[in-house]
Write a structure and sequence with these properties.
Blueprint: E1 3-8, H1 17-24, E2 28-33, E3 49-52, H2 67-80, E4 85-88, H3 90-98, E5 103-118, E6 135-145, E7 151-156, E8 164-167, E9 171-174, H4 182-191, H5 193-199, H6 203-238
Parallel strand pairs: 1-2, 1-3, 3-4, 4-9
Antiparallel strand pairs: 5-6, 5-7, 7-8, 8-9
Helix pairs in contact: 1-6, 2-3, 4-6
Length: 239
């Protein structure tokens, strides 16, 4: 049985479809609620893979959220051990930081349903090959990063040059949200209502638009996350 370590940064930003695919693959999940004070392991140890979820904090807030630095060290160790890594939104930023890439505020926040376009390299990527494009995905971030050195850019949007990347064959970062469920979406709109008001964004419009966009996004997410779980088995066979 594959063992996967999942780091969660906010009560509403749950693994969602990722959890579904891990369960379908028979994985044993160790969930760490970093936002609730649960300690982040220094090393992945007996875990076969690492999933790092999104959250409302920024990497420049490490004094306020010291567990973010702990997570960077954890990701660095997972990279050294060539373990499969999946970073979502903040998780992709932490992966980029572990790869010595600067994470900074973008010129404006990207929140709501926006198109994601896949690169030519994505056509040959094990997780993204055959995915129709563009995909309209949920975005909820204000921070961006350049393509990490040695990584392959897989996706971009009109506002953000690097929406997804792969490092080597085992580490993936996705700035947009494919793990989404209706429950998670409603929770984010409610929990981050103040941010939406500050940005002049109608949360109910985001929820209503999900009727059109979420079915395809979820099909894409299930495919991508199912393929990622296969990396866990590949690693065990080569260990």
């Amino acid at each position: 049985m594959n063992r996967v370590l999942v780091i969660q940064h906010a009560g509403v930003e749950k693994p969602g479809l990722i959890a579904d695919e891990l369960a379908s693959a028979g994985c044993n999940v160790q969930l760490v609620l970093a936002f609730d004070g649960q300690p982040v392991p220094q090393r992945p140890d007996d875990s076969d893979g690492l999933v790092v979820m999104g959250g409302p904090m920024g990497l420049y807030e490490r004094d306020r959220y010291p567990f973010l630095q702990d997570e960077i060290h954890l990701i660095e160790n997972a990279l050294e051990e060539h373990k499969p890594i999946l970073g979502i939104c903040l998780g992709s930023q932490l992966l980029a930081a572990a790869l010595r890439t600067e994470v900074k505020r973008g010129r404006q926040k990207e929140i709501g349903w926006h198109s994601v376009h896949f690169t030519e390299q994505a056509r040959l990527d094990p997780l993204l090959t055959g995915i129709g494009q563009p995909v309209t995905a949920l975005h909820w971030h204000g921070d961006i990063f350049e393509i990490p050195s040695g990584a392959v850019r897989l996706a971009y949007s009109e506002l953000t040059e690097c929406q997804a990347f792969r490092y080597r064959e085992n580490a993936y970062g996705f700035l947009f949200h494919m793990e989404l469920t209706a429950e998670i979406l409603r929770g984010m709109v409610t929990t981050f209502a103040d941010e939406l008001r500050q940005e002049g964004i109608d949360g109910q419009e985001i929820i209503q638009a999900a009727t059109e966009y979420m079915p395809k996004l979820q099909r894409t997410g299930r495919t991508v996350f199912h393929r990622w779980t296969a990396l866990l088995g590949d690693r065990q066979m080569t260990a």
